[in-house]
Amino acid sequence: INNNEVKLFKNVFQPDLKHPQTLAIIGLIQPSGSLIPVSEMQSRWFAQLMKGDKKLPTKQKMLSEIEEDIKAINDRYYASKRHTIQIEYIPYMDKLASYVGCKPNLFRIAITDVKLWFQLIFGPIMSYQYRLTGPNHWAGARDALLTYKQRFIAPFKC
């Protein structure tokens, strides 16, 4: 951390380490959404790297993306010591999900499951969508996405 600026690849990995994939800084981030699913996605990515199933980009690529991310933060937020680790929830989660291999294919879902596609496009963002496919997918993710309203209103039924 220098001047309250964190120079980590996707706010997780330090590219200057000899083996950057062996140390993950989980949760050092201020998402526009919930921190818990972001930390889980960072952890899933780290687990994939530790197992050897995935690889980080080259050091130069990571450094280049760090600079791009810092510029995006500086362009979007007022320059202050507070706005140095801000991220936009959906683009960040989608990017990490693409690294993990669990990003939903909305085009395929639109063709094969219109009801689910409609929920993903027009419903609230829920981290279940990153369990529909890929490593450690969950068979109940689709139902969880489609039945969230029932769980939401259940406590209000008297």
SSE topology sketch:
Blueprint: E1 30-31, H1 35-51, H2 59-76, E2 86-87, H3 89-100, H4 106-112, H5 114-122, H6 141-146, H7 148-153
Parallel strand pairs: 1-2
Helix pairs in contact: 1-3, 4-5
Quick overview:
A two-stranded parallel sheet has the order 1-2. The protein is 47% helix and 3% strand. It is mainly alpha-helical.
Q: Classify the secondary structure makeup into a structural class.
A: mainly alpha
Q: Extract low-pLDDT stretches.
A: none
List SSEs in N-to-C order: EHHEHHHHH
- Rough outline: globular
Q: What is the terminal separation in angstroms? A: 51 Å
Question: Average pLDDT across residues?
Answer: 93
DSSP E strands, number: 2
Q: Which percent bin holds the helix content?
A: 40-55%
Rg (CA only): 18 Å
Beta-strand content bin: under 5%
Main sheet: strand order: 1-2
How many strands, what sense, and barrel or not for the largest sheet?
A: 2 strands, parallel
Multimeric organization: single chain
Number of domains: 2
How many helices does DSSP assign? 7
Mind explaining what this structure looks like?
It is built from 7 helices and 2 strands. With 158 residues, the protein is mostly helical. It has 2 domains: 101 residues, no CATH class; 57 residues, no CATH class. A two-stranded parallel ribbon has the order 1-2. Helix 1 runs parallel beside helix 3 and helix 4 crosses helix 5. The radius of gyration is 18 Å and the shape is globular. The termini are far apart. The model has no long low-confidence stretch (mean pLDDT 93).
Key traits:
mainly alpha, two-stranded parallel sheet, 7 helices, 3% strand
